[in-house]
Amino acid sequence: MRYFSRQWKVKSDNGRLVKWIILSVYIVLSLAPVFWTLSTSFKPRSETLEIPPSLITHNFTLDNYVKVFQKTPVLLSLRNSAIIVTGTLFLCLTLGLLSAYGLSKFFKFAFQKFFLYLALATRAIAPTALVVPFLIIGRRLHILDTFLILILTNTYMWLPFLIWLMKGFFDVIPEELVDAAKIDGCSNLGILRKVIIPLSISGLVSVAILIFIDTWNELLFAMSLAESVGVKPITTTMTYFYTDVYTVYGWMTAAGIIGIIPAIFFTLFFQRHIVKGIVAGAVKG
Fold first, then answer.
1. 210: number of Cβ within 10 Å
2. Which residues pair with residue 119 across a beta bridge?
3. Does one domain contain both 9 and 102?
4. Cα–Cα distance between 188 and 47 in angstroms, integer?
5. Cα 98 to Cα 18: distance, rounded to the nearest angstrom
6. Does this model's pTM top 0.90?
7. Contact indicator for 68, 77 with CB cutoff of 8 Å
8. How many domains does the chain have?
9. What domain range includes position 17?
10. What is the DSSP letter of 227?
11. N or C terminus: which one in the chain shows less Cβ crowding within 10 Å?
12. Smallest Cα–Cα separation from 74: which of 237, 187, 274, 243?
């Protein structure tokens, strides 16, 4: 017995070691581009053009960040991105939660699954194929080059996914809890606010993080549907330093680092709420 126990322990330790090695390699490969971008943002221009390039700069400088603030409306772009993301999150969460709640608890019909899969299939359409239709819609509604057109396009991209995912969370909530809330006098919206959402907060926050990151990083619609500086988001800032003649890599990477900082803070802040939501849902269930 001791022999078999020892053999099982060795195999278990080896399996754990392999998992850690694979995870470490994945982390290194994932963070390598970010580290390279960060390192390049602190290099002087002459060093960014060296061949072979250096992994870590030998002449640390903050000049690239200074130039970004001097030559681009980076603060205005950050404000624009915040407006677009906030509007997209508000529309997605409001419409998505109500739709998922209705499909899960009230409107059940024969072809509901087909309808949900069809709605999700719209997410599979390449965004480049949607640029021209959105241009035509925006021109006819006179909302081109406004925050509204960018908010609507991002909402279109994420709303089906949110409905599909949140309906799955709502479906596993016991009907007894809903019935008990009705007996206590809760309205349908009260049940959604006091029972359904608290028990599904982990999934809701996860989807909100995905929507935030994708909307914050969106560039295609921002370049196609917005022209004025007062509307363009932070992702367009990096295009100021790229032309057919030259590319200032130091300024571009500095703008990229400035752009990802809010997304990092948003993710780190709400990551705590995912864990809290999982624990709360387990306890309440």
1. 15
2. none
3. no
4. 62
5. 45
6. no
7. no
8. 2
9. 2-41
10. -
11. N
12. 237
